[in-house]
Specification:
Protein name: Drug/metabolite transporter (DMT)-like permease
Order of helices and strands: HHHHHHHHHHHH
Number of strands: 0
InterPro entries: AA-Vitamin_Transporters, EamA_dom, EmrE-like
Domain EamA: 53-184, 200-331
Number of helices: 12
Structural class: mainly alpha
Radius of gyration: 19 Å
Subcellular location: Membrane
Transmembrane segments: 51-73, 79-99, 111-132, 138-158, 170-190, 196-216, 228-250, 256-279, 291-310, 316-333
Distance between the termini: 47 Å
Length: 343
C-alpha cells in the first residue's frame, strides 16, 4: 500500500464485556471468559448463524472504517471526523441502551475510570488515525490497526501489569515488531513527514487501544455493567470531550457532499456504534479468544477497499510485514505455542 493517500474523490481505532475494537478482543489471554454453551436443536443453529453474521459484519465494518476516514478527510479535519463518529456512535448506542432498558451507573469511580478509557480508546486514537491518514493509505492504516492485540499484551504485561508476559507473548511482540519494521522499510530511506512520523502515530493509536484494554481489565472488570453500557459510557464521554475540543482544534473549513456525510454517518453508526454491540454478542457466545479472530478480517477488508475504491497501490513489503504481525498476534494470543523445555 502506498504511503501517500490518493487525492481523487472515492465512491465512498479492548473482561468479557469490554467495549473495545474487536481487533483487541481476547488479547489479554488468561482472563478470557469460558466458551458459552449453546442451546440444542434449531435454536442453536439459528443462534450460531446470527452470531456468525454479527462477527463477519463487525470485521467488515471495522475494516471499512479506514475507507470512511479517508473519504471524510476530503472535506473534514481529523478532529471533526472524530467528533462526528463519536456523536453518531453515542446516539446509536444510546438508542440500544434505551431499548434494552440499561441504567447508568451511580458510582463516581466508574465514571472517572471510564473517562480515562474514553480518552485512550476513542479520543486519542481517533485523532491519531485521522491525522496519520492524511499522509498514509487507508489500507496501511488498517494493517497497523491489527497490531492492537500485540500492544494490549505489552501494556498488560509491562505497564498496567495485569499479567506476566509468557515466552510466547514476548516472542510474539518481537515478531510483530519485525513486521512493523518491514512495513516501515527503513532501507528505502526515511521520509519523516510523509512516512515515518504518520506510521509512528498509527502505532501510538494502537498503543492507546492496548492501554485502555488493560486498564479496563484492571479497574472495571466485575462492575456488573453490561457491554452495551460500557460501550455507551466510553463513546458517550468521548463525544462530550470531542464536542468541547472541536471549537479549539477543529476550526478548519468544512466541505460536505453526499459521500463525506455518508461516510461519517456510517463510521459513527456502524463502526463506532453497532459494531461494538455486535462484538459483545460474539464474545459472549464464542468466548474472547475465538472472537479475536476478527483481527484477520478487518485489515484484509481495509486493504481490499483501499485498492478497489481509492486506487491505492500495494507494495511488496506491506503484505510481508502484515504476515509477520499476524504470526506475532498468534503467539501473543497463545494460539501458537513454543515447545516446552526439557528438564
Amino acid at each position: 500500500m502506498s504511503d501517500t493517500r490518493p487525492a481523487g474523490k472515492p465512491k465512498d481505532p479492548q473482561p468479557e464485556t469490554l467495549p473495545a475494537p474487536a481487533t483487541a478482543a481476547g488479547a489479554l489471554g488468561p482472563a478470557e471468559p469460558a466458551e458459552s454453551a449453546q442451546p440444542a436443536g434449531a435454536g442453536r443453529a439459528s443462534g450460531d448463524l446470527r452470531i456468525a453474521l454479527q462477527f463477519t459484519a463487525a470485521g467488515v465494518v471495522w475494516g471499512a472504517s479506514f475507507l470512511f476516514i479517508a473519504v471524510g478527510l476530503e472535506g473534514l479535519s481529523p478532529a471533526q471526523i472524530a467528533t462526528g463518529r463519536t456523536v453518531f456512535g453515542a446516539l446509536t448506542l444510546g438508542i440500544i441502551a434505551l431499548v434494552t432498558r440499561e441504567r447508568l451507573p451511580r458510582n463516581w469511580r466508574i465514571w472517572a475510570h471510564m473517562t480515562v478509557v474514553a480518552l485512550t480508546l476513542c479520543v486519542f486514537p481517533y485523532l491519531l488515525f485521522g491525522w496519520a491518514q492524511q499522509s498514509v493509505s487507508s489500507g496501511l492504516a488498517s494493517v497497523y490497526n491489527a497490531t492492537t492485540p500485540l500492544m494490549t499484551a505489552l501494556m498488560a504485561g509491562l505497564v498496567i501489569r495485569v499479567e506476566r508476559l509468557t515466552r510466547e507473548q514476548v516472542l510474539g511482540l518481537v515478531v510483530g515488531l519485525a513486521g512493523v519494521l518491514v512495513i516501515i522499510a527503513p532501507w528505502a530511506g526515511v521520509d519523516l513527514r510523509g512516512g515515518l512520523v504518520p506510521q509512528l502515530a498509527l502505532l501510538g493509536a494502537t498503543a492507546c487501544y492496548g492501554f485502555s484494554l488493560a486498564y479496563l481489565r484492571r479497574f472495571l472488570q466485575g462492575t456488573g455493567l453490561s457491554g452495551v453500557m460500557l460501550a455507551l459510557l466510553n463513546v458517550g464521554i468521548a463525544a462530550v470531550i470531542m464536542l468541547a475540543l472541536t471549537p479549539i482544534i477543529g476550526r478548519d473549513p468544512i466541505t460536505l457532499d453526499i459521500w463525506i456525510v455518508g461516510s461519517i454517518v456510517l463510521l459513527g453508526v456502524f463502526g463506532t456504534g453497532l459494531a461494538y454491540a455486535w462484538n459483545q454478542n460474539v464474545v459472549r457466545a464464542w468466548g474472547a479468544t475465538r472472537a479475536a479472530t476478527v483481527t484477520y478480517i478487518s485489515p484484509v477488508v481495509g486493504v481490499a477497499l483501499g485498492i478497489l475504491i481509492l486506487g491505492e497501490v500495494l507494495v511488496w513489503n506491506e503484505p510481508v510485514g502484515a504476515a509477520l504481525i499476524f504470526v506475532g498476534i498468534l503467539l501473543a494470543q497463545r494460539r501458537l505455542r513454543l515447545p516446552r523445555r526439557r528438564r
